[in-house]
Amino acid sequence: MFDESARVLVIDPGTTSTKFGVFTRAGEELARTIRHGDEELERFRGRPMLERLDYRAELVKRALEEAGYSESGKGEERFVAVAGRGGLLPPMACGAYLVDEAMMAELRRARLGEHASNLGAALALSFARAAEVNAYIVDPPTVDEWEPCARFTGSPLVERVCIGHALNTRAVAQRYAREQGRAYGDLRLIVIHMGSGVTVSAHRGGKTIDSNTIEEGPFGPDRTGALPVRGLVKLCFSGRMTQAELDRHLFGDGGLFAYLGTRDLIEVERRIGDGDREAAAVLEAMVYQVAKEAGAMAAVLQGNVDAVLVTGGMAHCERVLQLLRPQINWIAPVTVYPGEDELRALAEGVFRVLDGEEEARRMCADPAATTA
Questions:
Q1: How many CB atoms lie within 10 A of CB 267?
Q2: 155 Cβ partners below 8 Å, 6+ apart?
Q3: DSSP assigned state of 14
Q4: Cα–Cα separations (whole angstroms), residue 8 to 4, 11, 17, 134, 271
Q5: By CB neighbour count within 10 A (0-12 exposed, 13-18 middle, 19+ buried), where does 55 fall?
């Protein structure tokens, strides 16, 4: 058992930033965000995500040193564990997982795609080795608790794959449950995560039973969301884009960016304030699609919903909330948790393991056999 001063280092890599923090059981001791500019993004464009490991690790190391820490801890006290945001791994149960060679091999293969979150386990392992402790991930994006009926698409050749913002949506749902003095498993919730991507999920019995995926649902700051199938097929065979260019359009250059040339919601708000009708129409359309997805999740829960929780970076935007609330408050009372408290969620997941409340899982060589 570790004492109250025990420190956990947590790292959350995103497309345009790397967030990291140091936590004790009392809460946040340090939190920093390192921004990655266009020069870095262009330098690594088209290359495997894990090639950015050394570059980002060095930035985190320097930032830790500037804050009075070393890469292994503070003074003679080493970090007791390191956690990173989970990446695009095979379907997994919720919980904390030890980072091991089987997980790293899967991330190197990147069979589900290249994504910044794939760096989380690698960064955690790098700093854990310096501190001579274990590295973990918690609630990776591929946590899959869907019911069987949620997997059907209409074609036996294609199955829906569960990928979303599991870490933040589960953490927010559990936080709401604590505030209400109720068990998470007793609540029926819709959680709307609006960040660089949008995940709208239905929670029942302590599980996420359905949600849109990164390939579906509303468009976001730089993702297209769902597209009309025949239109997408025509685009694929039009010769206008290579496969790599089309993938980039869908997952990086779509959404607000495709329409307005910016991913920055503050810039979009500025344009609207200056009378830009196109910016206003695009933002309203994005929120409209988010509300439609919330209505779909209400149907999944048969109209019996205790609360709708709104979270993610876009939840800081009052204009977005003003547009969204009237379209969803008929479902259930709306509670807003602005931002993405994923650093705290990572730390809490690791402390549950360290305190013996949960057992760390391992990703088996056969992903279908992943067990506790």
A1: 14
A2: none
A3: -
A4: 11, 10, 20, 11, 42
A5: middle
pLDDT digits (tens, 9 = 90+) for 102-143: 999 999 999 888 888 999 999 999 999 999 999 999 999 999
Strands 198-204 and 188-194: antiparallel
DSSP string, 174-217: HHHHHHHTS-GGG-EEEEEEESSSEEEEEEETTEEEEE--TTSS
Domains of the chain: 8-144+342-369 (3.30.420.40), 166-338 (3.30.420.40)
Distance CA 233, CA 236 (A): 5
Residue type, 249: H
Tokens of 291: 């509300």
371 DSSP assignment:
B
pTM equals 0.87
User: How far apart are alpha carbons 322 and 328 in whole angstroms?
Assistant: 11
Q: How many CA atoms lie within 13 A of 323 on its CB side?
A: 21
